[in-house]
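User: Some background: our group keeps a shared notebook of sequences we're curious about, and every so often someone picks one and asks for a predicted structure to add to the entry. Today it's my turn. The entry only has the sequence so far, pasted here. Could you supply the structure so I can complete it?
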Amino acid sequence: QVQLVESGGGLVQAGGSLRLSCAASGGTFSGYAMGWFRQAPGKEREFVAAVSWRGGSTYYAESVKGRFTISRDNAKNTVYLHMNSLKPEDTAVYYCAARFGIATIGVRDYNYWGQGTQVTVSS
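Assistant: Of course. Here's the predicted structure to add to the notebook entry:
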C-alpha cells in the first residue's frame, strides 16, 4: 500500500515560486508513475503534471506549461513540483498521486492519493 505525503505549500505573492514535495512510503516506488493534481474551491480536481517511473517522460497541463516542472528522485522515493511565475489562478489544494504503469493525465487513473497541500497566490 503506497502512502503519499505532500509538503511545501504556503502563501506566496504573484510572480513568486514554490517547490512542492511528495514523499512515498509503504511499498516500492518502482514502476509507479506520479502525478500532481489540484482542486480549487468549487471546481473539479484537475491534472497539473505527471512523470513516468524513470523520469524520462513528463506531461503538463497547458495552463502550467513553461512555469511548472515535475521531477522525481527515486533514491529518495520523492517527487517534486517546482512552480515558478505563480498566478492567483494557481491557488488550490495540490495533490500528489501514484499509479502503477504509464503516466497519464486522468484523475481516475490514479490509485493512491496524498492528503493535499494548500497553495495560495496573492495578487
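Suggested note for the entry: The mean pLDDT is 96. The radius of gyration is 13 Å.
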